[in-house]
Amino acid sequence: MTRILSFAFLAGLLSLAAACGGSSDDAAPEADSAATAETAPAAAEPQTETAPQATMAAAPKPEPGSGADIFAKQCSWCHAPGVDHPGTMQLGATRGEDFAVLEEREDLNADYVKYIVRHGLNAMPPFKPTAITDAELDKLANYLAAAD
Amino acid sequence: MAAPLPEGVSAEAMSSALDRFARIVGADWVFTEDKITPYEDPYTISNDETEHRPYAAVAPASTEEVQEIVRVANEFGVPLWPVSRGKNFAYGGAAPVMSGTVVLDMNRMNRILEVNEEFGYALVEPGVSYFELYDYIQEKGLKLWIDVPDPGWGSVVGNALDHGIGYTPYGDHFAMQCGMEVVLPNGEVVRTGMGAMPGNNTWQLFKYGYGPYVDGIFSQSNFGVVTKMGIWLMPEPAGYRPYLITFENEDDIETVTERLRPLKVAGVIQNGATVRSLVLDAAITRTKSQYYDGDGPIPPSVAKTMMADLDLGMWNFCGALYGPPPVMDTLWTAIRDSFADIPGVKFYFPEDRRHKVDLLLHRAETMKGVPKLTEFNFLNWDGGGGHVGFSPVSPITGKDAIKQYNMVSSRVREYGFDYMGLLAIGWRDLHHVTVIVYDKTDPDERKKLDELFNILVDEAAAEGYGEYRTHIRYMDRIAKTYSWNDNALWKMHETIKDALDPNGILAPGKSGIWGKNRRKA
């Protein structure tokens, strides 16, 4: 299962690379195929239950305007640890626990992050340039790409 | 494919208007071509790529910039589709009814102008999200609660203007609105209520001012662009106790609703309480594949397993008590006694729940105004990512509740979807909101959903049920169901539209209201 999903994810990345080079018209169907890959069969066993994060304020406050700060303000609602976050739940169910928490992943590259933020994926809607500016998106993408 | 130009607007006129917009807001805040993707409906229902497509977006930073944009739009006949933050995703997101419309994205106008702890109100711009208002109040340590709908990233202003609802005693958002600033389609600015009086200090305290009360005509409409809005906030109560009451049988909804009515009308149930269906609630912590691998909706035997596993019922009533402990104790006795004789009923407080991630623990936060996005775990239920809300209103009666449930759930299941519904208990009505979760990547499923939705609207209307809010795709259809006396109300809306917006530049087709330049006979 893991191997199949990893392959599907790579296929998504490759198609993304193609999409970035082409026009937006070409990108749309490729983005959809990446989406399909991420919805591959779910693990049958129940997901591990992680207690909800007590509050965002409990964590040390990231530097204002940093990639970590943008992540906390724009992404953490769906992608913080714990299955009460829809993005974390979805990735855990379809890709496995190792891929569930974005800030802990080592396989993300900045271009992929930028593409998904602007185009959405599965249930995730795209983010407007007024919500996350291009400059903020650069910081966010670099932060997630560098996360370990 | 590129979005088409709006009907009746030439490429030259559009290009000139966009140039002028760029001079007003700066070239960085006008978006076209590949930059427009985030303004499309991400959960599109239509299979026709020419429908509901924005041509461009423009993002002002001040009321003055909105005025200038509106004047330019009139000059070139370019239609504008205002959105506050564009997060109204079950109803179309930021996308317009009419293709080619330019999205007027108000997200940059995100100032919290005032939060008044003594009187309990905020004055905000449309770009302010529930998360931002909540954080502001927490940082300042103010003893105020906000009321949130499920999407915490949504706009406080936009949700109220679309008649959105939440879960505290202040859950009817438009009822809690007080005072607006509005840019009219001709570029003029008005302040409503007491805001019309120079030097007055009760703009956010008294709604009606003097003369006709007009705030309502700027909700779900296309008569103006709201640039500031007051919203009343609830003082933090002396005590808070959320609860969950579960019911085992589908048919229980009839008795439960009958028992709810007197409690709500008398104020014993204090908040925007909800009665929610099994699958909607299960989907907050589980995916469908964890219980069922077959096609179509889950069968009753699987429902039984889910109920036992998750400590849920076929129906789950989430409410909360607010106030000093003796008050909460007294209210709870009345509520518990009202349901105690229903076979299989179970009563829970948060400490009684087995799972760490749980419906009641989640609702315990939203019923005290903590913004979140947890509810949208339901989008993971079947893996397809798309969703749309079907939202008819009925009286709080058992007869209506069971009739609507049977009508909607049988159709939804006939089309292969699980029924995921809730009854939100308003002051005197039920909002019966059914969320249909579908595979947005599958054209056949989108077509099936479209057919189902149209049937649901027509069948509801035939029984006298109307929707309180809808997706951009169904605005005309639902407007036509409000047809008493030869469509007299929509004719009045058109009269107002023509007076305020003679060139029809603001949000063509919003709520089925069109300017005279695009009105069909």
UniProtKB/TrEMBL annotation, chain B:
Can you give the residue ranges of the FAD-binding PCMH-type domain? 50-236
- Going by the entry's taxonomy, the superkingdom of the source organism is recorded as Bacteria
Q: Name one GO biological process term.
A: lactate catabolic process
Keyword presence, Chloroplast:
no
The record, for SUPFAM superfamilies, names: FAD-binding/transporter-associated domain-like, FAD-linked oxidases, C-terminal domain
Locate the transmembrane regions by residue number: none
Annotated positions binding FAD: 81, 84-89, 150, 153, 155, 159, 165, 167, 226, 387, 469, 510
- InterPro entries given in the database record: Cytok_DH_C_sf, FAD-bd_oxidored_4_C, FAD-bd_PCMH, FAD-bd_PCMH-like_sf, FAD-bd_PCMH_sub1, FAD-bd_PCMH_sub2, FAD-linked_Oxase-like_C, Oxid_FAD_bind_N
What cofactors does this protein use?
A: FAD
**Gene Ontology MF: a single term:** D-lactate dehydrogenase (cytochrome) activity
Pfam families xrefs: FAD-oxidase_C, FAD_binding_4
Record keywords, A-Z? FAD, Flavoprotein, Nucleotide-binding, Oxidoreductase
> What's the protein name?
Oxidoreductase
Query: Which species is listed as the source?
Result: Hyphococcus luteus
